[in-house]
Amino acid sequence: MKIIVDTNIIFSGLLSPNGIISDLLLNSFGVFDFYSPAYVLDELENHRTKLLKLSSFSEKELDYLQFTVLKRIELSL
Questions:
Q1: From residue 71, how far is each of 43, 54, 56, 67, 75 by CA, in Å?
Q2: Exposed, middle or buried: residue 14 (CB in 10 Å: 0-12, 13-18, 19+)?
Q3: 1-51: per-residue pLDDT in tens?
Q4: Which pLDDT score is estimated for 77?
Q5: Dihedral class, residue 53 (left if φ above 0, else alpha if ψ from -120 to 50, else beta)
Q6: How far is residue 62's CA from residue 77's CA, in Å, rounded to a whole number?
Q7: Other beta carbons within 10 Å of 4
Q8: C or N: which end of the chain has fewer Cβ atoms within 10 Å?
Q9: What contacts 24+ positions apart, CB below 8 Å, involve 58-65?
Q10: Radius of gyration in angstroms for the set of CA atoms belonging to the chain, rounded to a whole number
Q11: Helix (H, G, I), strand (E, B) or coil at 44
Q12: What is the Cα–Cα distance from 59 to 6, expressed in whole angstroms?
């Protein structure tokens, strides 16, 4: 099944890495195909300070989690 993912879903997955949304994004290989416009990268960068503050992650931790989530999402222009 193809699913369009918006920035809010990605934020939720990043802020709650043990939550349902993160679980779906990371553990549904072969069940769901996730798609998102490439501008989510700009939005994530624009809100990086807020994500760091809300999550209490280090920059490296946030980078790793963001990489892990985004590799499951096909970005398109």
A1: 17, 23, 22, 6, 9
A2: buried
A3: 999 999 999 999 999 999 999 999 999 988 999 999 999 999 999 999 999
A4: 83
A5: alpha
A6: 24
A7: 10
A8: C
A9: 62/14, 65/14, 65/17
A10: 12
A11: helix
A12: 22
In three-state secondary structure terms, 38 is coil
Tokens at residue 76, please? 């398109």
Say if CB 22 and CB 55 are below 8 A apart: no
Helix (H) / strand (E) containing 35 = strand 33-37
Tokens 């809010």 belong to which residue?
8
Sorted by where each begins, the domain ranges of the chain are 2-76
Contacts of 32 (CB under 8 A, 6+ apart): 1, 2, 3, 24
Q: How far is CA 75 from CA 10, 18, 23, 31, in A?
A: 12, 23, 19, 18
